[in-house]
Design goal:
The protein is mainly α and about 625 residues long. The chain folds into two domains: about 95-290, Terpene synthase, N-terminal domain (Glycosyltransferase, Alpha/alpha barrel); about 325-605, Farnesyl Diphosphate Synthase, CATH 1.10.600. Helices cover about 60% and strands about 5% of the residues. It has helices at about 65-70, 75-100, 110-120, 130-140, 160-170, 200-215, 220-240, 245-255, 265-275, 290-320, 330-340, 350-370, 375-385, 395-420, 425-450, 455-465, 470-475, 485-490, 495-520, 525-535, 540-560, 570-585, 600-610, and strands at about 20-25, 25-30, 45, 45-50. The strands form two sheets. A two-stranded antiparallel ribbon has the order 1-2. A hairpin with a 2-residue loop joins strand 3 (about 45) and strand 4. It is globular, with a radius of gyration of 26 Å.
């Protein structure tokens, strides 16, 4: 059989093995023959070493390609044009805020303010207009009542479009608004009312109702009803609409909702929608300036992305990862996720740190799940807890390089965080890393022994071994946002926000990975543990049960993130929440960690590699 290539950091061996499977109290030893097809066998130093590998596809983004990328949008002339447009847009928003006019009147001023804020946020340019957005929303909220709002301050009757958009936008910004306002848009039979003929205005109202329903809190039955009604309505409407800005907007919103949506991907899509639909381009309001600014901002950040990506790719290559043949190489994909949730130019440390730490976590996952032997894993676990370069003395050759890159990266990120936080944060990073390693070690023991834990045991361990905690904490500490200890307690493990987010990702991830992992001899998953405890259930039953758990957890996550009674501002929780969205996006169609050459490759191209046409 073909051997793995020999390189300084390259692993050179693999194997299948016998597993001990616990089944209703009986211990049965059997060989997982399917794993033979996943492995190659060879020896090191004259001794046979048994290993498994998963045969993941190779890195999709060659360093030479990355280094060859170029763009003109870093030129000063583009920045000067952007600054001019920012001033013009602020002037436009302020003119709406201070006086009525031909287009802004007492009969439509609330909806117009909400629409401008919504467009600014969806176009990805809201960072320039924080005070203007707050003023607009304060104004809208001052007219909010138990029935919602109408188009304008003088409106006598509440309007579904204004109320749904207001509920969504105000809730996302921390205003205490109740979903009970939606009850007033039901007919006598308790169903949401709609006309026999679907007008464009009604379709837009229902579209905003669907968008609002995604921000549901636990126990909000009316939001669940709104989601069901609006989903059916919009799916029917899109079949009748011609291909246009509205139909594409509906398709995108139904496809990605809120939790799977990524801000930069939405901006790229909305630029096309906004630019082609006349309803958004009212010449007298100069809203076309929003589109011009959005395109410039997208491309100027695209220029910064290329610079950062070149640094990351060179780090990956110089660290020796390019010579490793067994792990997944997803550094470019992780960078893409980071830049899709944070496009603030000053947050380079966050984006690069996020990509590095999650790439390392993925390499470690492949070592603990498949490639490492138990003896090696015990040595590596001890070395991480010792946290000193001398700990590499007892490690096998391929682990030495991984350990040192891990050591240097975690320490480097702690140094960046110290500049931002004004204190040493290394212990936070080390504690998160040790928790991740311990959980990974526990899973390795299950794999080597064939032990099947209970569903609760598996999930408690699995939400740590997913790596959300290790990948979230250190990057956000570099943001320049103050994170005193009491705020970190609301974000870091074992906070409820962290716990819920980690549970969602483990549950959703297992739905897409359990079959491939089972073929490698990894028995434990949410699906297998649930079926073991419920012998009458099928795989479909298990998946439906887990999806139901995820749906409930997503509402709880919304609450933990947006709860108006929290003493932690939403801005301090935003990145932790958006990192959940980034990874949830990876599981939209498949295991995007392992199979990155379809939708995720397209995401890289659309949001990082290609600029938007001006």
């Amino acid at each position: 059989m073909a051997l793995l290539s020999v390189a300084p950091l390259a692993p050179r061996w693999c194997v299948h093995k016998s597993l001990v499977t616990s089944s209703k109290g009986k211990v049965v030893r059997r060989t997982i023959s399917t794993s033979i097809r996943m492995c190659r066998i060879t020896t090191e130093s004259g001794e046979g070493v048994q290993r498994r590998i998963a045969n993941h596809h190779s890195n999709l983004w060659d360093d030479n390609f990355i280094q060859s990328l170029s763009t003109p949008y870093g030129a000063i002339s583009y920045h000067e044009s952007a600054q001019k447009l920012i001033g013009e847009v602020k002037e436009m928003i302020n003119s709406i805020s201070v006086k009525d006019g031909e287009l802004i009147t007492p009969s439509n001023d609330l909806l117009m303010r909400l629409s401008i804020v919504d467009s600014i946020e969806r176009l990805g340019i809201d960072r320039h207009f924080k005070s203007e957005i707050k003023s607009a929303l304060d104004y809208v909220y001052s007219y909010w009542n138990e029935k919602g709002i109408g188009w304008g301050r003088d409106s006598v009757v509440a309007d579904l479009n204004s109320t749904a958009l207001g509920l969504r936008t105000l809730r996302l910004h921390g205003y205490p608004v109740s979903s009970d306002v939606l009850q007033h848009f039901k007919e006598q039979k308790g169903q949401f009312a709609c006309s026999a003929i679907q007008t464009e205005g009604e379709i837009r109202s229902v579209l905003n109702l669907f968008r609002a329903s995604q921000i549901a809190f636990p126990g909000e039955k009316v939001m669940e009803e709104a989601e069901v009604f609006s989903t059916i309505y919009l799916k029917e409407a899109i079949l009748k609409l011609p291909v246009c800005g509205l139909s594409r907007e509906i398709s995108y919103v139904l496809e990605y909702g809120w939790h799977i949506n990524l801000p930069r991907l939405e901006a790229r899509n909305y630029i096309d929608v906004f630019g082609e639909d006349p309803i958004y381009l009212t010449p007298n309001m100069k809203t076309q300036k929003l589109l011009e600014l959005a395109k410039l901002e997208f491309n100027m950040f695209h220029s910064l992305q290329q610079q950062e990506l070149k640094l990351l790719s060179r780090w990956w290559k110089d660290s020796g990862f390019s010579q490793m043949t067994f792990p997944r190489h997803r550094h470019v994909e992780y960078y893409t996720l980071a830049s899709c949730i944070d496009s603030e130019p000053q947050h380079s440390s966050f984006r690069l740190g996020f990509a590095k730490i999650f790439h390392l976590a993925t390499v470690l996952d492949d070592i603990y799940d498949t490639f490492g032997t138990m003896d090696e894993l015990e040595l590596f676990t001890a070395a991480v807890k010792r946290w000193h370069p001398s700990a590499t003395e007892w490690l096998p050759e391929y682990m030495k390089g991984v350990y040192m890159v891990l050591y240097e990266t975690v320490n480097e990120m702690a140094g960046e965080a110290e500049k931002s936080q004004g204190r040493d944060t290394l212990n936070y990073g080390r504690n998160a890393l040790e928790a991740y390693i311990d959980a990974s070690m526990e899973e390795a023991k299950w794999i080597f022994s064939g032990f099947l834990p209970t569903f609760e045991e598996y999930l408690d361990n699995g939400k740590v071994s997913f790596g959300y905690g290790i990948g979230t904490l250190q990057p956000i500490l570099t943001l320049g946002i103050p994170f005193p200890h009491h705020i970190l307690q609301e974000i870091d493990f074992p906070s409820r926000l962290n716990d819920v987010a980690s549970s969602i990702l483990r549950l959703k991830g297992d739905i897409h990975t359990y079959q491939a992992e089972r073929s490698r001899g990894e028995k434990s998953s949410c699906i297998s543990c649930y079926m073991e405890e419920n012998p009458e259930s099928t795989e479909e039953d298990a998946i439906n049960h887990i999806n139901s758990m995820v749906d409930k957890l997503l509402k709880e996550l919304n609450w933990e993130y947006l709860r108006p009674d929290s003493n932690v501002p939403i801005t301090s929780k935003k990145h932790a929440f958006d990192i959940l969205r980034a990874f949830y996006h990876l599981y939209k169609y498949r295991d995007g960690f392992s199979v990155a050459n379809y939708e995720i490759k397209n995401l890289v191209m659309t949001t990082v590699i290609e600029p938007v046409p001006l």
